[in-house]
Amino acid sequence: MTETPQRPLRVLAAMSGGVDSAVAAARAAEAGHDVTGVHLALSANPQSFRTGARGCCTIEDSRDARRAADVIGIPFYVWDLADRFREDVVEDFVAEYEAGRTPNPCLRCNEKIKFAALLDKALALGFDAVCTGHYAKVILREDGSRELHRASDMAKDQSYVLGVLDEKQLAHAMFPLGDTVTTKEEIRAEAERRGLAVAKKPDSHDICFIADGDTQGFLAQRLGKAEGDIVDESGAKVGTHEGAYGFTIGQRKGLRIGTPAPDGKPRYVLDISPVTNTVTVGPAAALDVTALTAIRPRWCGTAPTGPGGYTAQLRAHGGETEVTAEPVDGELRVTFTEPVRGVAPGQAIVLYDGTRVVGSATIATTTRTPAAAL
Q1: What pLDDT, in 10s, does the model give residues 120-147?
Q2: What CATH superfamily classification does 10-200 receive?
Q3: Class (C level, CATH) for 231-285
Q4: Any binding-site annotation on 19?
Q5: pLDDT tens digits, one per residue of 47-60
Q6: DSSP string, 16-45
């Protein structure tokens, strides 16, 4: 059954300054909860983060959140978590790319900021739950345990980036938009009916702490240029690059390879080696992955005790694929029913049992088909 609390809760609503979090806070207040809005200041210099209503880290976002709280009629505060965000999200992002991996900063922000730093502070202040505008559902079972499920509207489901939440965190999480089978236009229409000025504010899709959207330029500023070779599967040099950190597994565009492939077909990034500072490219078929090992598993409830059949999602806006997965010695071993492409170390794999989120882990190594192995 879907959780329906018997008593009003003291709720801390994380308000990014966007339409989803504003409507979520309004719905929580309308449901009778004692809601307080809070905007997270995540940059010591907000001007360095996105402007033009594109993120959750700007001065105008803070002002939009405050205006929404005023309309809803709830108290509002700004909490400075800039140091924690820099250490746990931004520095982690840079370090992962430097190591040749492809991180997901939004997932890390949910884990370390919104449902760790923010939730810890909320509980210490006597709040019962943290409310966000994510599209996902928390379901209360008869035994009192809670499960995380996909949103009713699969097109807007955001359970992938919440797969890092454990059962304790789920016990204090509230997602008022998760049961809504509506379009984004209807959410905006609801915001307009409520008098929320953010009703027509553009959505944010890019990384909030990269002001101009240039990830490679952002990394180059912090890691410096380091020219290296681009090689094919045989090891022959086919081009050069200015930093291996600027590439991701499966990338096709922007390789700047002067030498065409023998078969004339496009080449893709197959491997990134920070040690030798080389990027290996090859045909699409060489990206086929049949299995992987993932580390740091986090379970949304009781951890599986043996192998089981699940579906897996490998990126925030990706589809599902059938897998067999098993926890082994603190790791997660996954075998794909059919080969998949573009799987990169550093990405998160999230397991599902139907609509229920079983848990997530960080991809460490992949196994490719013999014909595709490097």
Answers
A1: 999 999 999 999 999 999 998 888 889 9
A2: HUPs (3.40.50.620)
A3: mainly beta
A4: yes
A5: 544 444 344 567 78
A6: -SSHHHHHHHHHHHHTT-EEEEEEEE--SS
